[in-house]
C-alpha cells in the first residue's frame, strides 16, 4: 500500500501535518530512508500491515465538512427543553463560552501533572472544588468526575470500601432511571447486593454498607433525607445524597443534613446539554473519607520560595500508580467543563446564582398553582424545579401536544407528566405549558420548599465568588489564568502515549451550534435525526479503521471504554457458562488504567513480565497460561507497546491466549501509530477501546473531555453498552446482554463532531499518511537525540513506533540530575515535559505526533541538547549538582529580575539559555513545587487572598521578617 503525497497545500491533510514535503525529506534523510513507505515497511511488522487503507471516504475540505455538519444539525429539532431527568436548560455566558470552551489555551491544555506550568487551570479547578464544597456543605470535593450516573457508581464503590463488612447497598427508587441503571450494574459487578427501594419507609435488613438518596427525586418530589441518613448511620453504613447544585442555593446542604457523600452534575452551571455530555459531575465527602475519594484532587502547596502554589494532591491514589489497588480507574475527568461551571459560579456570584434558582423555582411554583387551578392534580407539594402532573392514561398525549407547541416535556409514566424548568424559562412558557393541562389564568405560586429544608447556612463565601461583577473583569481573569499555563497553543506537548496533536478548529467551532448543543439527550429520535446519523457514520468509520464489527461511543473516557470492553468479555464468558474465567493477564508495561479497569470488572489481575527488549516475555506468558489457562478471561495488550515499539510477536501472543479460550483486549491508546496502517480487529483483537481525545483529535481540555468508544468483534456485539435510560435496574441485566456504562446512550456526544470532522477532512489515505508522519517524527527525534540521551527500547531495524523512551538513569548516577530535573528545566526552554518516569522509572517518554513541523522538532532537540550540556558540566566537576541551573529550575520572571541573585550561574543562563528565547519567552508563575508539603498539609479549597502576600513582598520585607 503506497502512502499518498501531500499534493494540495490547502487540503486539511496539509494543514494538519506539520512537516511539508521538503521538511519531510530532511527528516527521512536523517533517519536513513528515502520515503515514508520505505520507513513504514521497515518499522511495522509485515503480517499486521493492511494492503489497502480502511475506507472512510474521500477527504472533504474544511468548508465542505462544515457544510455536511450543517446538514446534520438542521435535521435536529430544537424544542424548548423542560424534560429534566438530570439535564436542564442553561445559559452559557458568552464571555465564558468564548473565553474557555472555545479558547485554545484552555481546550488544548494537558492534565496538570506538571504543576508549575498549570497554575491557571489548577486554580480554576480548585475554584470548582471550593464551589462544590460550599454548596454541599462537605469539606473535600474532587476536581470532577465523568457524569452523574457513573459518579453515583463511584460513590457506591467508595461506601463499600469504607464499610468492608457491608455487602448490601440501598438505592432510592426516586433516583433518575439512568443513575439507577448504571449504579446498580456497576455495584453488581463488584459483588454488591443491590436493593432499589422506597425510602419513605423504615430501613430494613442488615449488612448495609450504605444508601443513595435522591434530593430531589426524579419526579421532582422533595423530602428531608435527614431521617434516612440517621437510620443508616445507626446501622453502621454511609449515606450518599445525589443533588442538583442549583437547588442547593435554596435547599439546606447535604453536609448540614448529615450526609457522608454528595454527588451530582454541574451541567446546569452554564454547560449546554450537548445531547448528553460532556458534563462535569462532582463528589464531595467528609474528612474521614478524603483518602478514598476517587478521581483527582487539587490541593495547595508551596513553591521553592515559600509562595502558595497549586498541584494535584495525594497523587498516590491515582490509578496509574496504584494499578489493581486503585480505588477507581478514572484517568480523564471533565476538567474543561468543570472550569466552565466554576467560572459560571464566579461570574454570577452567590447572589446571582440564588436569583437564578429563585426564578426557576418561582416559575415552577407558578406552573403548579396554575395547573391546580385548572383542575389537574400535582403529585408533590414540595419540589424545586420539576412539577409532576397526574394525567391518568394521557401522559403521552400531553407530551405530543406540547411538542407541537415547541416544548419537550417528559412522560414519567403513562399517567404522569414531568415539567422541569430551566434558566431561560419565562412566564410566557408557564402559560403555554399549563394550557396543555386545562384552562386557567396563570397563578402566582407560593414557595414549594418546606421550612425544614430551606437553606440557612451561607454558601459561596470565598472572595473569588464576590469579585467578578462585569464582563471586563471576567474576560481579564480568564486571560490571567490562561497566561499562567503552557498548552498546545504555545508549544509542542511531547507526552508519550498521550498524542497531543492539533485539534481541528473546523470541528471545534461546530460543537456550540445550537442545533447540536441544545438537544436534550432523551429527546425522541425523530427530534435528533441529525445527531443519530452523524454518530452512526462516525461509529461506522471507527469500526472500519479498527477492523472490528461494531463500535459504541457511549463510554465517555478511555477508562470507561476499557471497563466496557472488559465487562463485555466477562459477560461473554458467563453467557457461555465459563463462570471460572475471571483472570485478566496484564503486561507489566501496561497503562495503569488496565489493571484498575480489570479490578472494577471483577477480574483478578495476573501480571506478565517484560522481556529485555521491552516486549511481552513469551516464556512468562506461556508459564502464566499453563498455570491459569482455564481461568483466563482475557489479556490486555497495548499496541504498539507502552515502550514505544511494534512488537513482532503480537499475532503470536493473541494466538496463545485464544488457544486457551481467552479473549484479547488491545488497548487503543496508541492508535496514532496504527490508524490507516494496521487494524487491531484484524491481527488478533476481540475488543479495543479508542481515545478520541488523543488519536481522533478531541482536545484534552486540561484533563477532559474524553471519549473512549469500545469496538468489538462480531461475537461480542450483544455485550456492547446498552441505553441507560431504558434499563430495568430492579433486576440484573440478562447474562446475554451488555450493561449501561454512562448516563446517556451516546455518552459525551457533544464533542463527537470534532472527530467526525477530522476523519472526514483527512480521508482514508490522509489518516494513513498522518500515522506514518507521526512515526517519522518519533524516529527523527530518537535519531537526533540518541547520542545525548540513549533510547531505551527499539524494535525492528533499530526503529521506534510513534514514541520513544529516553533513558536518563546512567546520567542520574553520574551527575545526580534526575528525569524530574530535566522535566522542570524544559519549562525554562518553553516546553511541556515529556511523560516522566513511565513506564520505566528514571526515563522520559516522548511523542511528537504528526502535527509538529520541523522547526518545532528542532527547537525541542536544541533544548534537550542544551540540557545535556548542562548535565555534562556537573559530570565534569565544573558545577556541583546542588548549585546547578538544573537543580533550581524553573525560574519565574520575578526570580530573575529582582535585586537579589545568589546563584553561581547567571540570570541569562537561567531564563534565556538559548538565543531563540529572547524573542518569545514563557515564564512559569511559580518556582519548583514542594510536592511533599502539599500532602502533609492537605488544603483542597481556595486559600484566602492574604495567603499570596508572600509572592508579592519585596526582598527587603522578607529579609526583615526573617
TrEMBL record:
Cofactor(s) annotated in UniProt: pyridoxal 5'-phosphate
GO MF assignments: glycine binding; glycine dehydrogenase (decarboxylating) activity; pyridoxal phosphate binding
GO biological process: glycine decarboxylation via glycine cleavage system
Ranges for domain Glycine dehydrogenase C-terminal: 770-891
Residue stretches making up the Glycine cleavage system P-protein N-terminal domain: 15-437, 465-717
A cellular component term, taken from the record's GO annotations: glycine cleavage complex
Top-level taxon of origin: Bacteria
EC number: 1.4.4.2
Record-listed N6-(pyridoxal phosphate)lysine modification sites: 694
Subunit structure: The glycine cleavage system is composed of four proteins: P, T, L and H.
Protein name per Swiss-Prot or TrEMBL: glycine dehydrogenase (aminomethyl-transferring)
Amino acid at each position: 500500500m503506497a502512502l499518498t503525497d501531500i499534493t494540495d497545500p490547502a487540503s486539511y491533510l496539509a494543514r494538519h501535518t506539520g512537516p511539508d514535503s521538503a521538511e519531510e525529506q530532511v527528516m527521512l534523510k536523517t533517519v536513513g530512508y528515502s520515503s515514508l513507505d520505505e520507513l513504514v515497511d521497515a518499522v511495522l511488522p509485515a503480517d499486521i500491515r493492511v494492503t489497502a487503507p480502511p475506507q472512510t471516504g474521500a477527504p472533504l475540505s474544511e468548508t465542505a465538512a462544515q457544510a455536511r455538519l450543517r446538514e446534520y444539525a438542521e435535521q435536529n429539532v430544537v424544542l424548548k427543553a423542560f424534560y429534566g431527568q438530570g439535564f436542564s436548560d442553561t445559559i452559557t455566558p458568552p464571555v465564558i463560552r468564548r473565553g474557555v470552551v472555545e479558547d485554545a489555551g484552555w481546550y488544548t491544555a494537558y492534565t496538570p501533572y506538571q504543576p508549575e506550568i498549570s497554575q491557571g487551570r489548577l486554580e480554576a479547578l480548585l475554584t470548582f472544588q471550593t464551589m462544590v464544597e460550599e454548596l454541599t456543605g462537605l469539606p473535600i470535593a474532587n476536581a470532577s468526575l465523568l457524569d452523574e450516573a457513573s459518579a453515583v457508581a463511584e460513590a457506591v464503590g467508595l461506601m463499600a470500601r469504607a464499610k468492608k463488612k457491608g455487602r448490601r447497598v440501598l438505592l432510592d427508587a426516586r433516583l433518575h432511571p439512568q443513575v439507577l441503571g448504571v449504579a446498580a450494574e456497576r455495584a453488581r459487578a463488584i459483588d454488591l447486593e443491590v436493593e432499589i427501594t422506597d425510602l419513605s419507609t423504615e430501613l430494613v435488613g442488615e449488612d448495609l454498607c450504605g444508601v443513595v438518596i435522591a434530593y430531589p427525586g426524579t419526579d421532582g418530589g422533595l423530602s428531608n433525607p435527614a431521617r434516612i441518613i440517621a437510620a443508616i448511620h445507626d446501622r453502621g453504613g454511609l449515606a450518599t445524597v445525589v443533588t442538583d447544585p442549583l437547588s442547593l442555593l435554596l435547599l439546606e446542604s447535604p453536609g448540614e443534613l448529615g450526609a457522608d457523600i454528595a454527588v451530582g452534575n454541574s451541567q446546569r452551571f452554564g454547560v449546554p446539554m450537548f445531547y448528553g455530555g460532556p458534563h462535569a459531575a462532582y463528589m464531595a465527602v467528609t474528612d474521614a473519607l478524603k483518602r478514598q475519594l476517587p478521581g483527582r484532587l487539587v490541593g495547595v502547596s508551596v513553591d521553592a520560595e515559600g509562595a502558595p502554589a497549586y498541584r494535584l494532591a495525594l497523587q498516590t491514589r491515582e490509578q496509574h500508580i496504584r494499578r489493581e489497588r486503585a480505588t477507581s480507574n478514572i484517568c480523564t475527568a471533565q476538567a474543561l467543563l468543570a472550569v466552565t461551571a466554576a467560572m459560571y459560579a464566579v461570574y454570577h456570584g452567590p447572589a446571582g446564582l440564588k436569583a437564578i434558582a429563585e426564578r426557576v423555582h418561582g416559575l415552577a411554583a407558578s406552573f403548579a398553582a396554575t395547573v391546580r387551578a385548572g383542575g389537574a392534580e400535582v403529585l408533590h407539594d414540595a419540589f424545586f424545579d420539576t412539577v409532576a402532573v397526574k394525567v391518568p392514561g394521557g401522559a403521552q398525549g400531553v407530551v405530543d401536544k406540547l411538542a407541537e407547541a415547541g416544548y419537550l416535556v417528559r412522560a414519567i409514566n403513562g399517567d404522569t407528566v414531568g415539567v422541569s424548568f430551566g434558566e431561560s424559562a419565562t412566564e410566557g412558557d408557564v402559560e403555554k405549558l399549563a394550557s396543555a393541562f386545562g384552562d386557567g389564568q396563570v397563578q402566582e405560586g407560593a414557595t414549594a420548599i418546606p421550612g425544614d429544608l430551606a437553606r440557612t447556612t451561607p454558601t459561596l463565601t470565598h472572595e473569588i465568588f464576590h469579585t467578578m461583577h462585569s464582563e471586563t473583569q471576567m474576560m481579564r481573569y480568564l486571560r490571567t489564568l490562561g497566561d499562567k499555563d503552557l498548552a498546545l497553543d504555545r508549544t509542542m506537548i511531547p507526552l508519550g502515549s498521550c498524542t497531543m496533536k492539533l485539534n481541528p478548529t473546523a470541528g471545534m467551532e461546530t460543537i456550540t451550534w445550537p442545533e447540536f448543543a441544545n438537544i436534550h439527550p432523551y429527546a425522541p429520535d425523530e427530534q435528533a435525526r441529525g445527531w443519530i446519523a452523524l454518530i452512526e457514520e462516525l461509529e461506522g468509520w471507527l469500526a472500519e479503521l479498527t477492523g472490528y464489527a461494531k463500535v459504541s461511543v457511549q463510554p465517555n473516557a478511555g477508562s470507561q471504554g476499557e471497563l466496557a470492553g472488559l465487562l463485555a468479555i466477562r459477560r461473554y464468558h458467563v453467557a457461555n457458562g465459563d463462570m471460572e474465567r475471571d483472570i485478566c493477564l496484564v503486561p507489566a508495561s501496561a497503562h495503569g488504567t488496565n489493571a484498575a479497569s480489570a479490578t472494577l470488572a471483577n477480574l483478578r489481575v495476573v501480571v506478565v513480565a517484560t522481556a529485555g527488549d521491552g516486549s511481552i516475555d513469551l516464556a512468562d506468558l506461556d508459564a502464566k497460561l499453563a498455570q491459569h489457562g482455564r481461568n483466563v478471561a482475557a489479556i490486555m495488550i497495548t499496541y504498539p507497546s507502552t515502550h514505544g515499539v511494534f512488537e513482532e510477536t503480537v499475532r503470536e501472543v493473541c494466538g496463545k491466549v485464544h488457544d486457551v479460550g481467552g479473549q484479547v483486549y488491545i488497548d487503543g491508546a496508541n492508535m496514532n501509530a496504527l490508524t490507516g496502517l494496521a487494524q487491531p480487529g484484524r491481527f488478533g483483537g476481540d475488543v479495543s477501546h479508542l481515545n478520541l481525545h488523543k488519536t481522533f483529535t478531541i482536545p484534552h481540555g486540561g484533563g477532559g473531555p474524553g471519549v473512549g468508544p469500545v469496538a468489538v468483534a462480531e461475537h461480542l456485539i450483544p455485550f456492547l453498552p446498552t441505553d441507560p435510560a431504558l434499563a430495568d435496574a430492579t433486576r440484573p441485566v440478562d447474562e446475554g446482554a451488555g450493561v449501561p456504562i454512562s448516563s446517556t446512550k451516546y455518552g459525551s456526544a457533544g464533542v463527537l463532531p470534532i472527530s467526525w470532522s477530522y476523519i472526514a477532512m483527512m480521508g482514508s489515505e490522509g489518516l494513513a499518511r498522518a500515522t506514518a508522519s507521526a512515526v517519522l517524527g518519533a524516529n527523527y527525534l530518537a535519531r537526533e537525540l540518541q547520542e545525548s540521551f540513549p533510547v531505551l527500547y527499539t524494535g525492528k531495524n533499530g526503529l521506534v513506533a510513534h514514541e520513544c523512551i529516553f533513558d536518563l538513569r546512567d546520567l542520574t548516577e553520574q551527575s545526580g540530575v534526575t528525569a524530574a530535573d530535566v522535566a522542570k528545566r524544559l519549562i525554562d526552554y518553553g516546553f511541556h515535559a515529556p511523560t516522566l518516569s513511565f513506564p520505566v522509572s528514571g526515563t522520559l517518554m516522548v511523542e511528537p505526533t504528526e502535527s509538529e513541523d520541523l522547526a518545532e522538532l528542532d527547537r525541542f532537540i536544541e533544548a534537550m541538547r542544551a540540557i545535556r550540556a548542562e548535565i555534562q558540566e556537573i559530570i565534569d566537576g565544573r558545577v556541583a549538582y546542588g548549585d546547578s541551573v538544573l537543580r533550581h529550575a524553573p525560574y519565574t520572571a520575578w526570580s530573575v529580575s529582582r535585586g537579589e541573585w545568589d546563584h553561581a550561574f547567571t540570570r541569562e543562563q537561567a531564563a534565556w539559555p538559548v538565543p531563540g528565547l529572547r524573542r518569545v519567552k514563557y515564564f512559569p508563575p511559580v518556582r519548583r513545587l514542594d510536592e511533599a508539603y502539599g500532602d502533609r498539609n492537605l488544603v483542597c479549597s481556595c486559600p484566602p487572598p492574604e495567603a499570596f502576600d508572600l509572592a508579592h513582598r519585596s526582598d527587603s520585607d522578607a529579609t526583615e521578617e526573617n
